[in-house]
Amino acid sequence: MTNPTGHEIAEALGLLLRRSTRAGLHAQLTEGLGEAVDELTYPVLSGLARTGPCSAADLGREVGLDRTTVTRRADRLEEAGLLRREADPGDRRATLLVLTDAGQGVVRTTRERLAARIEDSLASWPAADARAFARLLRVFVDEGPFHA
Amino acid sequence: MTNPTGHEIAEALGLLLRRSTRAGLHAQLTEGLGEAVDELTYPVLSGLARTGPCSAADLGREVGLDRTTVTRRADRLEEAGLLRREADPGDRRATLLVLTDAGQGVVRTTRERLAARIEDSLASWPAADARAFARLLRVFVDEGPFHA
DNA sequence: TATTGTTATACTCTATAACTATA
DNA sequence: TATAGTTATAGAGTATAACAATA
Questions:
Q1: Which of A1, A23, A37, A129 has its CA 20 to 30 A from that of A111?
Q2: In Å, how far is B140's CA from the nearest CA of chain A?
Q3: What's this model's pTM, rounded to 2 decimal places?
Q4: Backbone angles phi, psi at A85, to 5 degrees
């Protein structure tokens, strides 16, 4: 490998994906939002925000979880008032999981906190660098080494 | 937020940190390296490669794990021949965890696979973009929204 | 017959506490 | 007294299999 770029990015990516990094970030973003929101339940909440009202089986396929796992995590989120269950009018076997207003608020808050933190850390960057980074990161994530 | 850059990066980062993304990448990088190497044991192996010979307690502090957890995971790696235990000549309470040649080989292989995958996905990029991305990602990871 | 949500079972992993040995 | 490694116990979470209801 004459080109060191791959190893440079690999090292940075390794740091980024490290468990302690993710756990710390998650703790910051969900602070004060209730103990029902943790690293296990948040993906369900966030996935539901992307898909809209959705069955447990479909949501499981979306976020890569078994439907029994979705059921259990949804139980906790329902108890906390962050989602509710509704009958699916189109399929009487299914139960739709639907975010409540409180659930939507949690998702919106975490997303805004993350965006704000990123803005803060980019504040000292030249504007052109920040724009370039956003563009390149997007391409990297969409076409990067995660699709094969 | 008049500036959309924060939200753009937040969205890309969310995709990157998603469990399914990480699990898929990990499966690719460790394919064929033996079943002792999984998402639980690899951080121990990789951390040990960074620190060099190290006690379980120190390694736990390095990678954010309880020392009992390090002990259990090290047991599996030792059974697989990827690390060995040695008496610490400087502290007779401690046992040093040391990567074997096989263990070093596993770490080297996964790192080279990741770098190669990244190189592949950057092959179609203008060289200046690739260099800029490597530089900006490094700064972002070092100074980014993960340190507060 | 296949798929829905849910529950029961067995299994894995972890955190806490305990133990012995050494600093 | 504090810290080393390890082990036992208890708790949380998951995957597998099962169930009744519906497609």
A1: A129
A2: 8
A3: 0.93
A4: -105, 140
Contact B18 A43 (CB under 8 A): yes
**Least CB-CB distance to A115: which of B7, B115, B139?**
B7
- SS3 track for B4-56: CHHHHHHHHHHHHHCHHHHHHHHHHHHCCCCCCCCCCCHHHHHHHHHHCCEEH
Can you name the residues that pair with B55 across neighbouring β-strands? B96
Taken in order of first residue, the domains within chain B and their CATH numbers are 4-143 (1.10.10.10)
CA distance B87 to B92: 7
CA closest to C1' of D22 belongs to A93
Question: Contact B117/A145, CB-based, under 8 Å?
Answer: yes
- Where does the pLDDT of residue B42 fall: very low under 50, low under 70, confident under 90, or very high at 90 and above? very high
Q: What is the pLDDT of residues B67-86, one digit of tens each?
A: 999 999 999 999 999 999 99
Contacts of B18 in chain A (CB under 8 A): 43, 63
Residues A38, B50, B67: CA angle, nearest 5 degrees? 55
